[in-house]
Amino acid sequence: MDKQQIARKVLERLKKRYQLKTALTWKNAWELLVATVLAAQCTDERVNKVTPVFFEKWPDPSKLANAEIEEVEKVIRSTGFFRNKARNLVNTAKILIEKYNGQVPKTMEELVSLPGVARKTANIVLGNAFGIQEGIAVDTHVKRLAFRIGLTKNTTPNKVEQDLMKIFPKKEWSNVNHLLVYLGREVCKARKPNCEKCPLNDICEKNI
DNA sequence: CTCCCGATAT
DNA sequence: ATATCAGGAG
């Protein structure tokens, strides 16, 4: 069975079990950008506890651009890396006001130029807020599962993304991220993967 | 490569 | 106590 066939089965089986959207709470590109930045090394569950307060205080870039950095730090503290995240979000808000008319840009190049935004975050925003399949968001779950299943021999996010882009059809790129993340959280966990309960058990190389 | 960093599971 | 959590920058 080649990688394309495995990829087809992965999509087919996981689509029966999981949703095709993020577990983050957001209602526009700005909110998704903020939520995704906050999600670095933090569970989406935790992010969803912080973002309602955040969006109430700073519902758009113009509000956040004028915020006190200490207040932002206070609100997002529980998500970890709070100093970096607060500084990056406020600076991003200022850039959006100055260069992008207060709007979240819709290209990879522009998004990754923002502080605290690299390909993973940009892919999430492009795919989910704008419906643009520019690449595949490779986070800790996607990286781990792609390697374990046997879809890649690489371990760096960029190389894993390149491998996955060759294997999965473009229209599924956003779904690849969502489905692998959900399986990674529930079954193929970093510490104790539950292979017995895994819907991919028979097609997985189990490179654990 | 290291650093950023609080919350949670094991 | 330690590993890990929807990463990114220096």
UniProtKB/TrEMBL annotation:
The keyword Lyase applies. Coiled coil: none annotated. Transmembrane segments: none annotated. Its EC number is 4.2.99.18. Its cofactor is [4Fe-4S] cluster. It comes from the Bacteria. One of its GO terms (biological process) is base-excision repair, AP site formation. Residues 38-186 form the HhH-GPD domain. Binds 1 [4Fe-4S] cluster. GO terms for molecular function: 4 iron, 4 sulfur cluster binding; class I DNA-(apurinic or apyrimidinic site) endonuclease activity; DNA binding; DNA N-glycosylase activity; metal ion binding. InterPro entries: DNA_glycosylase (IPR011257), Endonuclease-III-like_CS2 (IPR004036), Endonuclease3_FeS-loop_motif (IPR003651), HhH-GPD_domain (IPR003265), HhH_base_excis_C (IPR023170), HhH_motif (IPR000445), Nth (IPR005759). SMART domains: ENDO3c (SM00478), FES (SM00525). [4Fe-4S] cluster binds at residues 188, 195, 198, 204. Keywords: 4Fe-4S, DNA damage, DNA repair, DNA-binding, Endonuclease, Glycosidase, Hydrolase, Iron, Iron-sulfur, Lyase, Metal-binding, Nuclease. It catalyses: 2'-deoxyribonucleotide-(2'-deoxyribose 5'-phosphate)-2'-deoxyribonucleotide-DNA = a 3'-end 2'-deoxyribonucleotide-(2,3-dehydro-2,3-deoxyribose 5'-phosphate)-DNA + a 5'-end 5'-phospho-2'-deoxyribonucleoside-DNA + H(+). Belongs to the Nth/MutY family. HAMAP family: Nth. This is Endonuclease III. It comes from Desulfonauticus submarinus.
